[in-house]
Amino acid sequence: MSVYGFIKNIYWNIRLYPNLKIGLGVDFENKGNIVAKSAFIGSIRNRTVQWTYTGKRSAFLNHGQVYLGKNTRIHKGLGIQVNGVFSMGNNSYINPNCIIICQEKIEIGNECAISWNFTAMDTDLHHITGSPLTAPIIIEDNVWIGANVTVLKGVRIGKGAVIAAQAVVTKNVPPHSLVAGNPAKLIREQVEWKM
Asked: Rounded to an integer, what distance in angstroms lies between the CA atom of residue 134 and that of residue 174?
């Protein structure tokens, strides 16, 4: 894409979606529908994020439906491809260097804190005989996800859960529980945390 094309693309998307702010350096393509309340994509708003951002190119490609709540932030280094329905609730954020592949449905609730190098894929990308190709990922409200976590298709993470750094989540996580490991296993119940 030429510099003119890039600037025109950014200009039109900000004009069409006044509640969506897109940072410079984000390849932004929208061939679907976006509803935003006041969201930031690919922006750097605090020093911690500036210091830890690794400088990866950012891309947000939407061919489906995207719903972004109030004060939603997805920081730089993002690689997001939406062909299904992707949503984030109010006051939720994803720190830099995330990969999200949404073929069917990925839902992130309100007040979720998601750390660096987060990966979520609701698809295997290649068909495995006897297994569905896609299954929704649901992350309920007030979930804290640590650095380098991967969440795979068909997973529901319950309200108030904590996912430890480097976990690979392949099964449902009960509300207010702490899971860790690869594959992630229950470590503790009755967990409470505050953003």
From this structure: 22
